[in-house]
Design a protein that fits this description.
The radius of gyration is 19 Å and the shape is globular. It starts with a helix and ends with a helix. With 228 residues, the protein is mainly alpha-helical. Helix content is 78%, strand content 0%. The chain has 2 domains: 158 residues, no CATH class; 48 residues, no CATH class.
């Protein structure tokens, strides 16, 4: 097992088709962040540190709706909990690297390059540098795209006219379509929807996203136990 510049290059080059989509998503997020009142610097720092499209869009949407810092932090933690599983799946690979190499690779880890890396490993890729290289290939356009989108948003004056607040809804709908396996999953969706409508009606705030996510998790857990 190795972690070499050759592995970085392979990962970086293999990730370029995905990087194009990441750049477009980042521009849209930058516009959305500008609409929510974040400065160009705040939006760029958020992309460089949080580095999670779904979490960032949800957080910015919550802030625009009046959510506080606590609700924003909980939202980020919930939406990024999947990275615990990503890290565990990469441990057999990255454990052969130095701590610095492993943690650097995990810092730049995203949904796309994780899937790309796992597919490459299943196809025989042995160099763990592939994870790092593919991560860098997506991190750079994410930050640059956020900067451009945020600057463009400040020029537009009224970026809300682009209806970018629908971005998170579209993103989650696309993910749900791929994750939907059977009619039984509709129960989880129904519980989450009922909680979302109830909380939004009784106490509309950024906590609606948090309450809905927790309800979906609990419903999904009991559904899984019933199947088992």
């Amino acid at each position: 097992m190795s972690f070499s510049p050759a592995g970085w290059r392979r990962g970086f080059l293999r990730a370029q088709p995905l990087a194009v989509g990441v750049f477009g998503y980042a521009v849209a997020f930058g516009l959305l962040a500008s609409e929510a009142g974040l400065s160009v610097l705040e939006a760029a720092l958020m992309s460089a540190t949080v580095y999670s499209g779904s979490a960032q869009v949800a957080t910015v949407g919550g802030l625009a709706a009046g959510a506080g810092i606590l609700a924003s932090v909980v939202t980020v933690l919930m939406l990024n909990a999947r990275y615990l599983l990503y890290g565990a799946s990469l441990r057999p690979w990255l454990s052969q690297s130095t701590p610095g190499q492993a943690y650097a690779s995990l810092y730049f880890l995203g949904d796309g390059n994780w899937l790309l890396s796992m597919n490459a490993r299943n196809a025989g890729e042995q160099d763990a540098g592939f994870v790092f290289g593919s991560g860098i290939a997506m991190f750079l356009p994410w930050v640059v795209g956020t900067l451009l989108g945020s600057v463009a948003g400040s020029w537009l004056g009224r970026p809300e006219l682009l209806a970018l607040d629908f971005l998170l809804v579209a993103f989650c709908a696309a993910m749900a379509t791929d994750l939907f396996k059977s009619r039984g999953d509709l129960w989880t969706v129904a519980v989450a929807l009922a909680v979302a409508l109830g909380v939004e009606r009784l106490a509309p705030s950024g906590w609606t996203i948090v309450a809905t996510g927790l309800a979906g998790i609990v419903a999904g857990y009991f559904r899984h136990e019933e199947r088992a």
